[in-house]
Amino acid sequence: MQIKKNIAVSETGFVFDPTSGESYSINSEGQEIMVLLKDGKTAEEISETMCAEYEIDKAGFEKYFYDFIGMLRQFQLIETED
Amino acid sequence: MSKRKITVALTGLNNTDNPGPGVPVIRGIRESGEFDARILGLAYESLEPAIYMDRVVDKTYLVPYPSDGTDVLINRLLEIHKKDPIDVLIPNFDAELYAFMRSEKILEKAGISTFLPTLEQFEERHKSNLPDFGKKYGVKVPFSKALTRADEIEDLKKDFEYPLMVKGKFYDAYLAYNTEQVRMHYNKITAKWGLPVIVQEFIKGTEVNVVALGDGKGNTIGAVPMRKQYITEQGKAWAGITLDDKKLLDLTDKVISGMKWRGGMELEIVKSFDNELNIIEINPRIPAWVYLAVGAGQNLPEALLKLALGEEVKPYTGYEVGKMFIRYSNDLITDVKEFEKLSTQGEL
Lengths: 82, 348
Prior knowledge:
The complex is a heterodimer. Chain A is mainly alpha-helical. Chain A contains three helices and three strands.
């Protein structure tokens, strides 16, 4: 699971997709996850990092995480397999 | 290096909510590092805003509509040229291009340079010829049909699924959900633009546009893709952003190299949800949003001028992604004396 290389994520949580011209605003947790994804971290590693940082258990985090990933996929911000 | 003095005449001064490309083309030329241009505006109506805008045109001449006859328009142009010599003419409307393309030799003989598509290029990219165009150049286009009689509307359901697009040969496009709506739009369009009326398959997706310039030898001199971010009721872009999309640039190259396109063009493309690129229109001139390309690093109006002067132009190799344009309206104050002068003497 990789965020497309040309996606820009700013420190303010502004996400710009230069291929579609679409832009999105995400909260600080979303921004943190996007940065981890861009750094090539796996879902497991992201879960560990976020659970250590915030008061949430693994199952609770993953529910929100995969929702978020679904949204990124829907907006075509994630590299497809081909 | 001192700038070269040049006189450029151009149309498209109607800087309204459905703007012509005149003002952005002039802005590009004004920002040229190579040309010190004197701009002659050619106006079809006395209230085209650019006539009265500061530092846009240096002089305006009223000209007759192409529908009055090619000879009438060209004779007026030659009359203007006699007292105010023109180096380069840049027409900015689809509807007038035919007259100027047909008169290219006459203009050239008189010393007026142009850089226009050939009649063959102009014809084959027509909306009514799009299916053949798609086959010839191997690009995806929507299924379409040219209507010349109202009684053909009833039979559309045999070939199309609703909704579908109803388009004028030069301008205007409407979405129709049933036969009655097609009939309504057909009548509206024929009254304004004549026949044929083009019916086109409606492709769901995101509309993206590319402004490009071909050198007539198959090379793309420049190309900048844009997505409309804010669209007016007339479907015109009120804001837009440059895109980083190699597929769009490859498609543009394919069209320009295949056709050996000569001059400015705008590709209107729908990117379907499965990321297929469908060309829905090819406009044979620079679009009104060309100043975004200038702002992103490709001064296409300047490059067009150089091509018209017969100079070699090095293709642009890049542009800034994420550059935006946002249009605005403004109330310009002028005196009735200006309007009077243009209306009575045909120049200002």
